[in-house]
Amino acid sequence: MAKTTKIPKRIAGVKLPKDLRKAGNALIERAQSPEGRQVLTAGLAMAATAATAALAKRAQTPPESARPAPEAPDAPPQGTQSAPDPQAMADAFMGAAERALGQFFGKRV
After folding, report:
1. Nearest to residue 58, comparing CAs of 80, 85, 25?
2. How many Å apart are CA 82 and CA 80, to the nearest integer?
3. Residue pair 71/45 in contact by the 8 Å Cβ criterion
4. Backbone phi, then psi, for 10, in 5-degree steps?
């Protein structure tokens, strides 16, 4: 018989709601099945492929100093979009996570 994994009621002193623990336990059960492992493997492979493609695209773009200066520095031309900067996105995500965790684990008054 397989060992069942249960998420504890408290992690690092923080109480987890019962609904969250139930959903987590169900997710762990599904991930431990052969189909679940296959889905996780496929997801990780897709993430690695996307990361590799982003790095390759970034390596192909010329550095900022080699690009010609835009005509209107305040706004891009109408109808065009530039690719999002992965580093800026990561910085924004980390900042939001730090603020959320700061509120979550901050001093209680």
Report:
1. 85
2. 7
3. no
4. -125, 135
Q: Encoding tokens for residue 84?
A: 């999002």
Q: Which residues lie below 8 Å from residue 5, measured CB to CB, with a gap of 6+?
A: 25, 28, 32
Residue 54 has pLDDT above 80, yes or no: yes
Cβ(9)–Cβ(16) below 8 Å? yes
By three-state DSSP, how is residue 5 classified? coil
pLDDT tens digits for range 71-81: 555 555 555 55
Q: How many angstroms separate the Cα of 20 from the Cα of each of 3, 76, 109?
A: 21, 44, 26
DSSP-assigned states of every residue in 42-85: HHHHHHHHHHHHHHHHHHHSPPGGGSPPPS-TTSPPTT--PPPP
In the chain the first and final C-alpha atoms are separated, in Å, by: 48
What three-state secondary structure class fits 11?
A: strand
